[in-house]
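INFO batch 0412 | record 1 of 1 | parsing
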Amino acid sequence: MTLPDQPALDLDAALAATGIEAMLATLDEELVGLVPVKTRIREIAALLLVEKLRRDVGLTAGAPSLHMSFTGNPGTGKTTVAFRMAQILHGLGYSRKGHLVAVTRDDLVGQYIGHTAPKTKEVLKRAMGGVLFIDEAYFLYRPENERDYGQEAIEILLQVMENQREDLVVILAGYGDRMARFFESNPGMSSRVAHHIDFPDYTPDELHAIALLMLGRLDYRLSPDGDTALVEYIARRRERPSFANARSIRNALDRARLRQANRLYRQRGVPLTRDALMTIEAADIRASRVFDEPGGGEEETG
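INFO prediction complete | emitting tokens
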């Protein structure tokens, strides 16, 4: 049987109507590097767009499984990508609201019998029509504690992820090795997660670019010596405990701004220029304990 000819679909027009390209462009602007992550997000967006077009012309288009796992160290952009993913899903008609609800174990698990189910269901109610982002999801499962109520939250999540997958996307996030053990211990959860995306650590050059981007957005800049100091800071900070990629850089810049403000405050009586108000000097960076010898740590936990 020969199907009648149908007019070709205008893919560019369909793409423009969703606004997806603008969202992906914004993601490129927000996040330095992360090429494998951005590539995978574009691939998922392409799949969803084609599935949408298939539905539009009456072809069979089963709802794709959209639950995801984001693995990587802190400060690698997982929450930002989850937020953009929520917008993409909404733009393509795969979510009603396009909002993101970000939670941890404490938001889902109760401390006594009968407390966990209402907490978990309330979070799910808020997330319906959008994306539920569960950070450090492996903390839901604590087999060493028989009286832990995390398993109850997992069972409720599993039911919703299966039965209401067309109205809620769940993204589980955390360290790669711990997430792998979590999935091994919870095969039901593993079978419901179709997309596993790993977020690599930033390189020193990428961290430097991130710092300049952050400063530029706030109308700050580095003096030449300040830039040299920042490069050295990044090299040292990456070797310290509790390094958290872009989060650590943001914290360092916040402290540098604090030091700059205090330096300028101590110069009362000297007229301040616009350039002085904008410039972070080397002294503002090198006052960090990261430059202490031998091997001092920075005053941060993230």
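INFO post-check: The CA atoms of residues 2 and 59 lie 16 Å apart.
INFO record closed
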